[in-house]
Amino acid sequence: MNSKNGLFFKNRVKEYVSHTDSNAIQQLKSILFSHLQKAGKRPVAIVCIGTDRSTGDSLGPLVGTKLSGLDLKKLYVYGTLSDPVHAVNLKEKLAEIEQAHKHPFIVAVDACLGRVKSVGSFQIGDGPLKPGAGVQKELPEVGDIHINGIVNVSGFMEYFVLQNTRLHLVMSMANTLSESLFHIDQMDWTREKSRSLFTPIQNITGRI
Fold first, then answer.
1. What per-residue confidence (pLDDT) applies to 131?
2. DSSP 163
3. Which superkingdom, per the lineage (predicted)?
4. What residues form DSSP beta bridges with 85?
5. Torsions phi, psi of 108, nearest 5?
């Protein structure tokens, strides 16, 4: 839904991972594992925000769709191509999630625009993201932690920039993030350390 990159919660530390890095999945896995330790035994909901009506804004629903086709053990996924979480239904979906899970730990996933050098990177940080800020929409903040995928350059006519974002980039980023989250799902983040964090990664892109 195009969260505004970097303008909110400026004092919070954010970590960046480029989807083109050879060890991008391992980096995302390590960062997310560290963040999820704060969840303890709370149910973890991955809320993938966006719409397939805009190429750049389809990152979230693509990630949700890929994850929903996998045998997840711990993560609950909301927001797919067939059942998206977007500006119109965001408040309703958040209420639904709160009702379905007792005090859930929410990981918000959304596309955003940013600097040229950051395009193709994921930005991970504590606290909520603000969906719709990049296209001047007032929507509720979402997430205990957030993952922003920077899909294009900000600054001018951002709605049209999202519409003209390359599908190849968005698909590649969705593959990387969904694979990372799949591996996280197989881990026990309630423990201080997990041996599985350092085991070799089996590529599952063909399955998702």
1. 82
2. H
3. Bacteria
4. 49
5. -90, 130
